[in-house]
Amino acid sequence: MSGGPVARVEEVSGRERVVMFDLDGGVADLSAFAHLLTVGDSGRSHRQAWQQFFAHLGQAAVVEPGRDVVEAVAGLGFVVV
Q1: Which of 60, 75, 58, 62 is nearest to 19 (CA)?
Q2: Residue 66: exposed, middle, or buried by beta-carbon count in 10 A (0-12, 13-18, 19+)?
Q3: Which superkingdom does the taxonomy of this entry point to (predicted)?
Q4: Which of 8, 28, 39, 77 makes a 20 to 30 Å CA pair with 16?
Q5: With 0-12 CB in 10 A as exposed, 13-18 as middle and 19+ as buried, what is 24?
Q6: Strand pairing of 79-80 and 61-62?
Q7: How far is CA 31 from the centre of its chain?
Q8: What integer pLDDT is reported at residue 59 of this predicted model?
Q9: Of 58, 61, 55, the residue nearest 26 (C-alpha)
């Protein structure tokens, strides 16, 4: 992405103008991995299910309008988290 800085939450000092985006559905289409959230009799906890789900974030399709918004906001000088 071009524009302003992108940071992790723990890297933000509190003096910056910050915008946080919802990744699931807003910037990344993780619907292909929704089946991982079904815990059922798998023996996994809900926390483990969500961790497995978000582990696939790098494989998710980009939601182009979401990317456009992130890039526009970053271009205005906001730190994107």
Answers
A1: 75
A2: middle
A3: Bacteria
A4: 28
A5: middle
A6: unpaired
A7: 13
A8: 95
A9: 61
Q: Show the tokens assigned to 62.
A: 């980009």
The more confident residue out of 30 and 79 is: 30
CB 49, CB 38: distance < 8 Å? yes
What would the two tokens of residue 14 be?
């509190």
- What's the whole-model pTM score? 0.69
Q: Where are the domains of the chain?
A: 1-7+17-27+63-81, 33-60
SS3 50: helix
How many whole angstroms separate alpha carbon 4 and alpha carbon 73? 8
